[in-house]
Design goal:
The protein has 290 residues and is of the alpha/beta class. Helices cover 37% and strands 13% of the residues. It binds 5,10-methenyl-6,7,8-trihydrofolic acid and 3-methyl-2-oxobutanoic acid.
Length: 290
Amino acid sequence: MSTTFQLDTSTSRANPTPAPMKRLTVPKIKRRKFEGKTEEPLVMLTAYTARQAQLLDPHCDMLLVGDSLGQVIYGLPSTLPVTLDMMCAHGAAVVRGSYHSVVIVDMPFGAYEASPQIAFEAASRIMAETGAAAVKLEGGEAMAETIAFLTARGIPVMAHVGLTPQAVNVLGGYAARGRSQQEHEKIIRDGQAVSDAGAFAVVVEGVIEPIAIALTQSVEIPVIGIGASAQCDGQVLVTEDMLGMFERVPRFVKKYDDIAGMIEKTVETYAREVRDRSFPGPEQTYQPKK
Ligand SMILES: Nc1nc(=O)c2c([nH]1)NC[C@@H]1CN(c3ccc(C(=O)N[C@@H](CCC(=O)O)C(=O)O)cc3)CN21
Ligand SMILES: CC(C)C(=O)C(=O)O
């Protein structure tokens, strides 16, 4: 087990970012929201690897090591089989590849729900092994006690309400939430509960826009939207989704590029050159000294 702390690595030759910046902190993220609104929205993307983190870091305020890595990296059918070992390994890689953003690591399903004490054991392991600045967990009122427990013991918590993918079996799918008045009120109560419990920010996912707007206006912590509203205090997406790595993505994803198409074309060229023996060429081949 290797332990990596969040050191200032700006002088290390392993870290090629040209203009190292001082890393943002959780209190600075929280303070970005004042008088009920964040002037400039917070920018968050998921990251799972060191190189990906290096590329995203200069443009983001927060990097989320999401448990969506279960689907995106490991090809699992949901986020439920994701383990603490996976989150620690990818969390450490993202911290090593970033210099500026606040890194937040998802707590995997099963690692925190049973009790605040169990949650602290999992969260403290994540903090110690990755060097991340905070953890994220899914749930509202039911997780308020756990959020207060972790925060009081030195672990900042980002909460996640609305469409909570770890609860897919209770919700019955990934459809948008909050279309009934009862559900609407429950999601607002969840957001207020996590804010009152001391979460430094909250993700609201897959809800009808009026809920996202009402929540953003009613809590003092930044509300980060995904499938929510442009009026949230920030936005997050799964990086591979917005880069166009996947054919099928949720409706709330905007595909900014077609990376899958680029990879396909490039690999097609490589395969052709191998088959017609034009790769490797003279420039990629060693010859004996004359
Ligand atoms: N690549 C990826 N992107 C994500 O946004 C994401 C993950 N993985 N894994 C974890 C959760 C799961 N999420 C999901 C997954 C599927 C839908 C989806 O298919 N939504 C449909 C509607 C589904 C329905 O109505 O039943 C859509 O068209 O938006 C939404 C969010 C969000 N998260
Ligand atoms: C989609 C985001 C918010 C997430 O929770 C994840 O990446 O797992």
